[in-house]
Design brief:
This protein has 364 residues and is an alpha/beta fold. Helices cover 38% and strands 11% of the residues. Strands 3-2-4-1-5-6-7-8 form an eight-stranded mixed sheet, sandwiched between helices. The model is unreliable at 1-7, 18-58, 84-92 and 346-364 (pLDDT under 50).
């Protein structure tokens, strides 16, 4: 697996003395030079040519942002006793450097890597060191204590458009019906912005013979929750909302002016770019998140960046999805399953031979 490119010390020296970056504060906003791909790890950033100092604001210049990110990464590595030469396999190639290289290749962010590497002082070889990393992951990755399949109450899935909310709900509902029965669960769709989204939820409801309610406002939602109060689990599908939507708060208020408590899960697609990921979490954290569901792990080269964000924000992981088939492709999160998928190499998805187990009900 390809690893992230680091600027050489000579390139750093040239950039510092030709672009005026030495005058930038150490805590300048971070950026990333990685770009997402569905079939390969983040690509190596383009070669940066020295340019004369200008009055351009570095926070809006992608080239300067990329340079600043590399400088911050270099400083972080130096604080761990690691140099760019050690990562390229030189004589100073240390145990920590090898482990860091492996973690970065799996998408983990440096802030999380520093925490994971902090306990390696007693490790004498790579095998022992990696075992200690696994132990660190077990203690640091937040996992939900209660399984969604045994949950009692109301769960709303929120997130950006295309993050996989509706498909996630369909898989969860199908597995819940298999474990319990279709009389114990109800579905609500508040996605009044998307006709196709509503139709999709209603289709899943017919297939599973589950009651589905469509709501447009707070009053409708309250009435639907009251009518489904005898259900063990109520799942709410919400509209896809951009983290930059100027009406974000107003669109989310529909859910959170209710007398009944609602658990809120943020769907985070594993294909989400690291910088956008931070924006999403910051925006949706305004509505008091209960945890996250990580989706589309089959489409991403790694999920280390998602786990890093969960560690840094202490967001509990409830589930993962790794395909389009319901109910198969939903994984209820346990620490062992999450670590397994975090440390796997990206592979082309296997050709599926089984047919979906959901059969259309004759009851509408």
């Amino acid at each position: 697996m390809a690893t992230r490119h680091l600027l050489t010390e000579e390139e750093i020296h040239t950039l510092l003395h030709t672009s005026g970056l030495q005058r930038q504060p150490a805590d300048a906003p971070a950026s990333t030079s990685q770009t997402a791909s569905n079939n390969a790890p983040y690509a190596t950033p383009p070669t940066l040519a020295p340019t004369p100092a200008t009055t351009t604001n570095p926070t809006s210049d992608p080239v300067l942002n990329s340079i600043q990110a590399e400088l911050r990464q270099l400083r972080s590595m130096m604080s761990l006793g690691i140099t760019s030469g050690s990562l390229s396999g030189g004589s100073g190639y240390t145990l920590k450097a090898r482990i860091l290289q492996r973690l970065v290749a799996l998408g983990f962010r440096l802030q999380s890597c520093e925490k994971l590497l902090s306990g390696l002082s007693l490790a004498s070889d790579d095998t022992t060191a990696w075992q200690q990393i696994l132990i660190s992951l077990q203690t640091q990755v937040p996992i939900a204590r209660d399984s969604l399949l045994d949950h009692r109450g109301i769960v709303a899935f929120v997130g950006p458009t295309g993050s996989g909310k509706t498909t996630n709900i369909a898989k969860l509902a199908a597995q819940f019906v298999q474990r319990h029965n279709n009389q114990d669960i109800g579905l609500i769709t508040t996605d009044y912005y998307s006709v196709s989204g509503r139709d999709e939820v209603c289709t899943y409801g017919r297939l599973l013979n589950i009651a589905v309610h469509r709501v447009n406002n707070r009053t409708d939602l309250k009435e639907s929750l009251d009518s489904l109060s005898d259900k063990r689990l109520i799942l709410i599908d919400t509209p896809g909302i951009s983290q930059r939507d100027k009406d974000f708060k107003e669109k989310m208020d529909l859910l959170f002016d209710q007398t009944q408590p609602i658990s809120t899960l943020l769907t985070l697609a594993a294909t989400t770019h690291e910088k956008i990921l931070d924006e999403i979490i910051t925006s949706f954290s305004r509505i008091r998140l209960s945890g996250v569901s990580i989706t589309k792990i089959d489409e991403a080269p790694f999920i280390g960046h998602i786990l890093s964000a969960c560690i840094e924000n202490q967001l509990r992981i409830y589930s993962l999805t790794n395909g389009q088939q319901a109910p198969h492709d939903l994984i209820i999160a346990t620490i062992d399953k999450v670590i397994y998928h975090a440390l796997r190499e990206f592979e082309e998805p296997a050709i599926r031979t089984q047919q979906p187990e959901i059969e259309e009900s004759t009851v509408c």
